[in-house]
Amino acid sequence: MPRSILLVRHGQASFGMSDYDQLSDVGRTQARLLGQFFSTREVRPERIVSGSLNRQRQTAAGICVAAGWVTPTDVDAAWNELDHVEVINAFKPAYKNMLVLKADMVRTLRPRAAFEDMFTQAIARWAGGEHDEDYTESFAAFDTRVRTAMSSLLDGDAECTLVVSSVGLISWIIARLLVREPWDRDVRDPERPDTNDLAIESIWRATSMAGYNTGVTRLQLDKDGLPQLLTYNEIGHLPEAKLVTAR
User: Fold this and answer.
1) In a 10 Å sphere around its CB, with 0-12 CB exposed, 13-18 middle and 19+ buried, how is residue 134 labelled?
2) pLDDT at 242
3) pLDDT tens for each residue of 70-109
4) Of 33, 87, 163, 210, which has the highest C-beta tally within 10 A?
5) Which segments of the chain are extended strands (E)?
6) 3-class SS at 194?
7) How far apart are the C-alpha atoms of 46 and 32, rounded to whole Å?
8) Helix axes 111-128, 98-107, angle to 10 degrees
9) Is 129 left (phi over 0), alpha (psi -120 to 50) or beta?
10) SS (H, E, C) 107-128
């Protein structure tokens, strides 16, 4: 069978709590249900990789326990999410105070939509490359990190690899795949067509906003070892609407 890669977004984290980087009760349930789902489908990855963030490692552990897998999980910080807190704070320093952020969102009477609008603008500022000095990790560095992490998987020999990561990375990989961007071409490559820039940005924005917690993205490697997108954001393991979360 062709080699495959399963990209899994972590379960719901503790948004709005003092420590965001912990799975909520719903997040733990999502991870358990996904593990059980994999078990019934006889999915047995030869390699399991997780980012080093707590929510990612906790999701990977929950999946493995529920699925009955004993394969050790490789922890690799290259699969960590972009620093959304830094991106937001660089966009509007007043939001370093979470109470100010919450108050601004509530004041709009549509807090979720307002947050997404604000975050889209914050991401655009980060990705623009004109304020790189404001960030610990520039957008170009993020792109390099994701491409390096993905290339490492493609260079491996596991028949099936499962990766627990985050929506920013997964959606960036999907955007590159759909536009057929070569893995060795970075975001600042002068030979990169402007139309590719616009297409990747549009796809990335749409898929990152639509990504569900523990959504599964399936890739299959072709005869040349290049990944092809089979499915994005599968949530068939979540039987109840209240378990389908995006934040």
Assistant:
1) middle
2) 92
3) 999 999 999 999 999 999 999 999 999 988 998 999 999 8
4) 163
5) 4-9, 47-50, 73-75, 160-165, 216-221, 227-234
6) helix
7) 19
8) 120
9) left
10) HCCCHHHHHHHHHHHHHHHHHH
Q: Quick check: helix, strand or coil at residue 41?
A: coil
Query: What does pTM read for this prediction?
Result: 0.92
47-50 sheet: strands from edge to edge: 73-75, 47-50, 160-165, 4-9, 216-221, 227-234
Q: Residue 154: how many CB atoms within 10 A of its CB? A: 15
Q: Please give the pLDDT value at position 52.
A: 97
Residues of the chain with pLDDT under 50: none
Nearest to 91 by CA among 47, 226, 100: 100
Query: Contact at 8 Å (CB) between 127 and 82?
Result: no
The first and second tokens of residue 40, run together, are 């019934």
Take residue 218 and report the two structure tokens written for it: 């399936």
pLDDT confidence of residue 46: 96
How far is residue 145's CA from residue 168's CA, in Å, rounded to a whole number?
Answer: 12
Rounded to 5 degrees, what angle do the CA atoms 39, 43, 158 make?
A: 145
18 vs 22: CA distance, rounded Å: 10
What is the end-to-end Cα distance of the chain in Å, rounded?
Answer: 35
